[in-house]
Amino acid sequence: MLKNVAVVILNSFTPFELGVVCEVFGVDRTDDGLPSYDFAVVAGEPGPLVSEVGFSVSTPFGLDRLKEADLVAVSAVSEARLQAYMSGEFPAPLIDALRGAVDRGARVLSVCTGAFVLGAAGLLDGRRCTTHWRHAPALARQHPTAMVDPDVLYVDEDPVITSAGTAAGIDACLHLVRKEQGSRVANGIARRMVIPPHRDGGQAQYVDRPVAMPACDTLGEVISWMQRHLGEPVTVRQLAARARMSDRTFARRFVQETGTTPLRWLTGQRILLAQELLEETTETVDLIADRAGFGNAAALRHHFRAWRGTTPQAYRHAFSPDASRVSPDAIPASPGGIPVSPETPGRSPAAYTPSRSLVGASPA
């Protein structure tokens, strides 16, 4: 459930990170057919609360407001204030409120240095997490039982979600929207915000760009071609030829430009396309698998479960208003011809063969 959202701010909060959460969850977009959220900005300590750049925020909401939230987001604080908190303590009532939120089943999400607040509450212990790469070593030292990954945009260790600096908070918020309300809603919010609808959480926090770009046949053109031909079989060798590079040079340049490998990027885009088709059409899973470039339903189910933690059919039932009208042949069948329900895990994904469109694609 994702209907009630509260974002906590502390003294010397950073405006952009607060604005990220406000923009995703605090703007009424019902005129576009998107859901609205019961949204509040909550004071994490007695006011007035002054931002890093000097303006103050007054809010009528205190920590009691967190008791009704489905999602509690914790915004970032300035570096100077973070040092002061780390040498002392974060406000004890806030720490108790965050623990209480998780205990009753709510999610918590941190943006940038907000992860230090979650760490102080013990919510990162034994969990993978992230923060801005500049602060990752300090977070690891402060919370040695947390598994800090400085190289990713966000980490979803439900019910705890942590994101890296600044714009990565947008990615984490949209990831949660997509997870709870489907790609149509997440894409609709992204469209209104004029941003890309999805960046994979495993993508690198910062991307190395070569000083000199080739004058012809840029990767942008190749990536655009890939987006237009997701349903077609393609290998890294073919993409490299289109970019007029060797296989190794293309793979290396692709990681430098996008922060991820060609195969992972392509699989992620195909998953997004499959999600949209599951939500917006009544086509069979086999047909969607073919249109999205996976070749067959077994390959789609394997990748869909690996990336989204559920089956295509279960996803459709959760997020498609037309799910009840989907024809019976859309239900995946077991090798013996017996329909497999969304609750039936079926074969282990490790037993599946690669999609025909991914055969020969280098993982590098």
SSE inventory with pairings:
Blueprint: E1 4-9, H1 15-25, E2 38-43, E3 49-50, E4 56-57, E5 71-74, H2 79-87, H3 92-103, E6 107-111, H4 114-120, E7 128-129, H5 136-142, E8 147-148, E9 154-157, E10 160-163, H6 168-181, H7 183-193, H8 219-228, H9 236-242, H10 247-258, H11 262-280, H12 285-291, H13 297-308, H14 312-319
Parallel strand pairs: 1-2, 1-5, 5-6, 6-10, 7-8
Antiparallel strand pairs: 3-4, 9-10
Name a few traits of the molecule.
single chain; 364 residues; alpha/beta; Rossmann fold; Arc Repressor Mutant, subunit A; two-stranded antiparallel sheet; 14 helices; 10 strands
* H/E element order: EHEEEEHHEHEHEEEHHHHHHHHH
CATH superfamily of the largest domain: Class I glutamine amidotransferase (GATase) domain
Mean residue pLDDT? 84
Supply Rg: 22 Å
Percent in strands: 5-15%
Protein architecture, described:
The longest helix has 19 residues, at 262-280. It is built from 14 helices and 10 strands. Strands 2-1-5-6-10-9 form a 6-stranded mixed beta sheet, with helices on both faces. The two termini are 37 Å apart. Helix 6 packs antiparallel against helix 7. A hairpin with a 5-residue loop joins strand 3 (49-50) and strand 4. Mean pLDDT is 84; it is low at 207-217 and 327-364. By secondary structure, the protein is α/β, with parallel strands linked by helices. Helices cover 40% and strands 10% of the residues. The protein folds into 2 domains: 4-193, Rossmann fold (3-Layer(aba) Sandwich); 210-364, Arc Repressor Mutant, subunit A, CATH 1.10.10.60. The radius of gyration is 22 Å and the shape is globular.
